[in-house]
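Q: A reviewer asked whether we had any structural model of the full assembly, not just the individual parts. We don't, so I'm hoping you can provide one. Inputs are below.
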Amino acid sequence: MNHPWLNDSECLEWMRTIRRHLHRYPELGYQEHATAAFIEEKLAELGITRVQRLMGTGVVAWLGKKETAPTVALRADIDALPVHEQTGLPFASEHPGVMHACGHDGHVAMLLGAARLLKEGELPGRVALIFQPAEEADGGAQGMIAGGALEGATAIFGGHIERLYPVGEIAVQPGIICAYADEFRITITGKGGHAAKPHDSRDSIVAASALVLQLQTLISRETDPVAPAVVTIGTIQGGSAANAIAEETVLTGTVRTVDPATRTALFAGIRRMAGALAELYQVSTTVAISEGYPPVVNSEAASRIAREAAAAVVGEAGVIPQPKPSLGGEDFSFYLREVPGCLVRFGARKEGHEQESAHSPRFDFDERVLPIGAAFLAQAAIAALSRLDELTADRP
Ligand code: NI
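A: Here is a predicted structure for the entire assembly that you could use as a starting point for your response.
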């Protein structure tokens, strides 16, 4: 790791201050008003004046040449999670029940760092800096695209902080890296009654319990074992008294898959099993499936450029593959439906927090990743602007 940008201690300090400020004042999806204002303030500090708000709390800024110039986009997500922080950090969240538990505070600092590194006058084209709200909510990416954030863009790059890898590693992988993330809701309606008179009732909780276990056989008995897939029931709600049989029980959950055939088969399996429950337990059931984020599929050309940019920052040895797709969802996928691009993972493992995955109330990362992320993003943008033909050939 000897990229000159990594030794810019003033820039590093600037990014760290930004990260800690955002960490202290996290905001949920579409409520990132102070966050957006803070980003605008920092852009103004850098003398970046072409700035636009989208969707209320999204910010896009353009660097470099005029509108008609070839454009490469860089994206950071800016929202926090409904998690109550338990890190004990000196800059821990001051908003109870809200926390930057996924590293998006770091992503903002990195993108601002990249803006600082890119010398506007020397750019061979235009760079769009996309500060996107609501990655964790319902896909803020879609609104940013509809609002024109990708206008004129040939490609897009982004990165996510990753506690599994040490600082100094960047994972770059062409192809699918994040799963389809869909949700479902199953409502089981029986007949409520006295807890001591089950024969006069239809118990929705017993039926729901059977279904919870049965649904797991969709994975263990019906899905190709080499195709990654998950069915998780996240909530069960039913009943209101210890001495009453519950009339209604509602299950909600998520399905994660990486290929369309498995996904379709699981949707059908959930409907089939819920339907069969009606017969088995004399209840009625309804199933609602809401399609979530599409999978993140990195383009070959953009991944090649990302790989080289990563090597320029952390050296060849620091660039690693991501051999298995994550079953997490990521709305970066919406951008990749429009233009070729690559989402990488920045190694950010922090001592003492290795076991705390993203979304944990004790999640934290090693801030030494900040200049690495910034340098990677800046480097990728410059490289992409000089290789537009390669990227155009890779349009989705
Ligand atoms: Ni995230």
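A: Points you may want to mention in the reply: Residues 102, 104, 135, 160 surround nickel (II) ion (CB under 6 Å). The chain has two domains: 4-178+295-392, 180-293.
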